[in-house]
Write a structure and sequence with these properties.
Blueprint lengths: L1 E6 L4 E8 L4 E8 L5 H5 L7 E5 L3 E2 L18 E3 L2 E2 L12 H7 L3 E4 L3 H11 L2 E6 L6 H7 L6 H5 L5 E3 L5 E6 L4 H9 L3 E6 L4 H6 L4 E4 L13 H10 L2 E4 L1 H9 L4 E17 L4 E13 L9 E7 L5 E6 L4 E4 L14 H20 L1
Parallel strand pairs: 3-4, 4-6, 5-7, 6-8, 11-12, 11-13, 13-14, 14-19
Antiparallel strand pairs: 1-2, 1-9, 2-8, 3-9, 10-12, 15-16, 15-17, 17-18, 18-19
């Protein structure tokens, strides 16, 4: 069945449908990973987006029960050049096309994704629709649509829950949490208490955690400004770590500003310089916004990491508190595990803080 991908700038790409065949709209973005399509499509940070894969063949190892980052796909649709017809892997349960149909996820294949990616790089990310028919109203309606501002509210947990262990206790504020963050903490024996994005500081402090982690999530950080005073109060009381959207909110809470990147960083081949340890880490990234480096000077923040290619801010720490953040995903999934040590750094910071409290007492 023939379908059409229509871009906000008027470009039209023709392809073949797979998965669900409903009309769908969203922000059109691209991911440069060769693998990891299942993790990406279920990564809540892609909520509201039409995800284009630049690698020409997608789906060659199928879908399995282990690689979900959330319970269902959160991207609005898939765009690919070619979908594997005969996937093969010992873990697979079904093909990508079968899964997309089962999950009511629209897809379009046989698209020139190289040309499409070049267009996104030239014009920037833009809204798009996948439809059966292009009418006189298609482009007008697309251009008139406003971007969603409630993605975090839609995707955050609605109730507090606990992943209990007898290790250090961390309060995790969920703005669009990936399962791989929970796995990374569980592997280290951390007792995790997960709170919704509208939590107040008192609710967290009443649970007496040893530290706070701000999760990843979708959308513009300026849509979640209600959490900034909560972050400021919590960082005064205990060690704090932010990841991705959590990094941007940590920056905003401490006086920095953010801006929208032209086409974002989405993939797991991004080289990042750790300025503190003087080393290069290859990282997994998925974000469309970044912290403005020029806004750091008048704050108590210090840049700890920077992207090698475009020199955007990839890590921050507070000079006067035990608090830091990174723009990339130390949990990887998919991607290299070069930066997983940051979870250990956070736990070491917590241990030092607890020791200091005991000595002070």
């Amino acid at each position: 069945m023939q379908r059409y991908l229509v871009l906000e700038n008027g470009s039209i790409y023709t392809g073949e449908a797979f998965g669900a065949t409903k009309d769908v709209a969203g922000e059109l973005v691209f991911n440069t990973g060769m693998t990891g399509y299942q993790e990406s499509l279920t990564d809540i940070s892609y909520s509201g987006q039409i995800l284009t894969f630049t690698y020409p063949l997608i789906g060659n190892y199928g879908i399995n029960r282990d690689d979900y980052e959330s319970l269902k796909p959160t991207a609005n649709a898939i765009v690919a050049h070619e979908i594997a017809r005969r996937p093969s892997n010992w873990r697979q349960q079904m093909s990508l096309a079968e899964w997309a149909e089962k999950m009511d996820l629209p897809g379009i294949t046989d698209v020139d994704t190289r040309a499409l990616t070049k267009e996104i790089r030239e014009y920037g990310v833009m809204r798009a629709v996948i439809v059966d028919e292009v009418t006189d109203d298609t482009l007008a309606q697309l251009q008139a649509a406003k971007p969603a501002t409630d993605e975090v509210n839609k995707m955050t947990t609605k109730t507090t829950y606990v992943n209990p262990t007898d290790g250090p206790s961390i309060a995790l504020i969920d703005f669009g949490l990936k399962n791989s963050i929970l796995r990374s903490l569980a592997k280290r024996g951390v007792n995790v208490m997960v709170f919704p994005a509208n939590v107040d500081a008192k609710t967290i402090l009443d649970m007496d955690p040893d530290g706070v982690l701000l999760s990843n999530g979708p959308g513009n950080p300026e849509d979640v400004l209600h959490i900034l005073p909560v972050i400021r109060e919590l960082q005064e009381k205990m060690p704090l770590m932010g990841i991705c959207l959590g990094h941007q909110l940590f920056a905003l809470a401490n006086g920095a500003t953010t801006f929208k990147l032209k086409f974002g960083h989405r993939g797991f081949n991004h080289a990042v310089r750790n300025k503190v340890k003087n080393q290069i880490d290859f990282t997994s990234q998925n974000h469309g916004y970044a912290v403005d480096a020029k806004s750091i000077a008048q704050t108590n923040l210090e840049i700890t990491h920077e992207e090698i290619n475009d020199h955007t801010v990839e890590g921050l720490k507070l000079k006067n508190h035990a608090a830091f953040s990174v723009q990339f995903h130390p949990d990887a999934a998919p991607g290299p595990h070069d930066a997983e040590y940051l979870f250990d750094d956070f736990l070491a910071m917590i241990a030092q803080s607890k020791k200091g409290q005991l000595q002070h007492a």
